[in-house]
Amino acid sequence: MAEAYKYEYFNVTFPAEYVAHVEINRPEKLNAFIEQMWLNLSAIFTRLSHDPNVRSIVITGAGDRAFTAGLDVQAASQSSLTQNAEDPARTATTLRRHILEFQNCISAIEKCEKPVIAVLHGTSYGLALDLSLACDIRLCASTTRFSIKEVDIGLAADIGTLQRLPKAVASFSWVKDVCLSARIFGAEEANQVGLVSRVYGSKAEAMQEGLKLAGTIASKSPVAVQGTKEVLNYSRDRSVEEGLRYTAVWNAAMLQTKDMKDAMLSGLQKTTPKFSKL
């Protein structure tokens, strides 16, 4: 399968049955993103979303120093988008289209039908937060250093952090604290506010546990897992009543799956169920 997933700046492997591992692979630049990387990221997750051989995904960064240091600012500063000599309205139109494209590339992770686990370590700045907040579960190593750096380079974060972070943690005061100051905070603070669900002693341990969790998720009914992710994401942005109505419509179809019968029968027989590909 890995041969079908050849994308520059990424390694895509399949370490266990139904589990995909996406590794950001530009360690010499702290895995900082250039334009081709976010286009490839979108292509990878769109493809994994529909791959019947994949039920869960882990995303990590190559090397020991960084998950990703964010956007490659030097490369971005040399882009023709920042050197446009047209009038302001036309420049704004070009920039708006570019920003929307970038947003859609990161949102491809959230829209992926399969649960995505981010395993963060080392430097995890800027785009690292945009990207990981689009994931379903975030784990990290104890050495992880986070920062929402955009105000330090003269802009408001525009790829998803300002929209997703307030819904991922309990304190809006803390959100404004870290977004307005661009201060660096560590793994324990991230864990305390709920930005990550678990902290491990090293990158290797965090990766091992991330893959273990992905394997557990992949062993469940793919119909049930896909539905759970879909309904959770839908309900997060709507009222309880809207979420309940959506769930009723969703399950009106999905309760007819053979997976339910297989799961119930295996429970009675104390066996491990095997579910068909979706």
Automatic annotation (TrEMBL):
GO cellular component terms given for this protein: mitochondrion; peroxisome
SUPFAM superfamilies attached to this UniProt entry: ClpP/crotonase (SSF52096)
CDD domains named among the record's database cross-references: crotonase-like
Lipid metabolism listed as a keyword: yes
Highest taxon of source: Eukaryota
Keywords, sorted A to Z: Acetylation, Fatty acid metabolism, Isomerase, Lipid metabolism, Peroxisome, Virulence
Pfam family, one: ECH_1
Residues in coiled coil: none
Pathway(s): Lipid metabolism; fatty acid beta-oxidation; Mycotoxin biosynthesis
BP GO terms, sorted: fatty acid beta-oxidation
Entry keyword annotation includes Acetylation: yes
Localization of this protein: Peroxisome
Single GO MF annotation: delta(3,5)-delta(2,4)-dienoyl-CoA isomerase activity
InterPro entries registered for this protein in UniProt: ClpP/crotonase-like_dom_sf, Ech1-like, Enoyl-CoA_hydra/iso, Enoyl-CoA_hydra_C
Family (UniProt): Belongs to the enoyl-CoA hydratase/isomerase family.
PANTHER family: DELTA(3,5)-DELTA(2,4)-DIENOYL-COA ISOMERASE, MITOCHONDRIAL, ENOYL-COA HYDRATASE
The protein's name: ClpP/crotonase
